[in-house]
Amino acid sequence: MSAARLRARRPQPSLVIVCALTWVLLWGSLSVANLIVGALLGVVIGLVFPMPVIDTPGRLRPLGVAAAAGRLLVDLVRSSGAVLVTVLRFGRTPRNAVVRVQLRSRSDLYLAQTAELVTLVPGSLVIEARRSSSTLYLHVMDVRSDADLERTRADVLAAEERVIRAFGSAAEVAALREGRPLPLPPDVPADVPAAVPAAVRGDEPAGEAR
Amino acid sequence: MTGVLDVLGGVCVIAGALLCLAAAIGLVRLPDVLTRMHAATKPQTLGLLLVLLGIGLTLRDLRATGLLVLIAVLQLFTAPVAAHLVGRTAYRTAQLRTDLLDRDELADDLRTAGFRLSSDAEEPNGEPEQEPREDDGAGQDRS
């Protein structure tokens, strides 16, 4: 897949709309002039900083988005509490770990959104994302047992599931519900199996890292 | 009614400010960059959201609310990205306390992929290893 094909040659409509909306919110008044200037800014930004087109196989699911947003708020409160407890407890240095989590989907959009959600949920921070195999490496704070790590892995996969329920295609949501492997886009390299559990994925191909 | 909203708004602002204070204490007290980023993302984000909510409840102005929502959305989107980049850089330049890590599966994978990590190197005469972690492969795009 060449870089030229990935880049949008013309401004993306979503970017123009978001810029216009942002501009209106910044100025605090909805006027034709504000909308036009904001849209023009969107066009200019799209031309100056061309970005890859976001290819999404699914559609926006309002219920899924609401569920994910609500859960995010709950998680934010829980994780803030957990960090506060760690911060304010004297006399013990927290033990940490870096764990690998293999996502089930293979999409840049899901990978990015899952990483965002995971950073805001309790105890974990994404420090590395491997795009080719949709693998996230998380720093986990205050680890006491292996069960904590397993819970973190389960949390990440649950966050991925919420993302897919919010933005996925019908086939992906159905696959999630029935516990089948997710349908993958056609350009996924066949040498990285999607459904292999994280525990047995100790053998990363050496060629991949050059 | 307005009095109740004012009190609620004030409580939210104070609670948010306290959370931000706790995040700042975390930045000082936690042992290394990666743990500090935990404090910089979670209580800080929630604290800012609470402050914004408090301001919105106190002002009760539609235009101000629009701006507050914009700030909240931008914060929610950018804080994890910033934390990711800082954490990634810290890991790659070995700015972390490996003695506090019970397990490091990223290092395991990097060794399997044939990288030599600076934490593996012997330091016989106290000379710090200058070479950064050579783990450029892990985050590369497929091309």
UniProtKB/TrEMBL annotation, chain A:
Cellular component GO terms, alphabetical: plasma membrane
The keyword Transmembrane helix appears for this protein: yes
Regions that span the bilayer: 36-54
Entry GO MF terms: monoatomic cation transmembrane transporter activity
UniProt KW keywords: Cell membrane, Membrane, Transmembrane, Transmembrane helix
Localization annotation: Cell membrane
InterPro entries xrefs: Cation_antiport_E (IPR002758)
Membrane topology: Multi-pass membrane protein
Membrane listed as a keyword: yes
Highest taxon listed in the record's lineage: Bacteria
One Pfam family in the UniProt entry: MNHE
Protein family per UniProt: Belongs to the CPA3 antiporters (TC 2.A.63) subunit E family.
Name of the featured protein: Multicomponent Na+:H+ antiporter subunit E
Record lineage: Bacteria, Bacillati, Actinomycetota, Actinomycetes, Propionibacteriales
Automatic annotation (TrEMBL), chain B:
The protein's name in its UniProt record: Multicomponent Na+:H+ antiporter subunit G
Domain of life: Bacteria
Lineage: Bacteria, Bacillati, Actinomycetota, Actinomycetes, Propionibacteriales
GO terms assigned for molecular function: sodium:proton antiporter activity
This protein's record includes keyword Translocase: no
Region (Disordered): 115-143
Keywords, in A-Z order: Membrane, Transmembrane, Transmembrane helix
Regions crossing the membrane: 6-28, 65-87
Xref: InterPro entries: PhaG_MnhG_YufB
Residue spans of biased composition, Acidic residues class: 120-134
Species of origin: Microlunatus kandeliicorticis
Family the entry assigns: Belongs to the CPA3 antiporters (TC 2.A.63) subunit G family.
PANTHER family: ANTIPORTER SUBUNIT MNHG2-RELATED
Coiled-coil residue windows: none
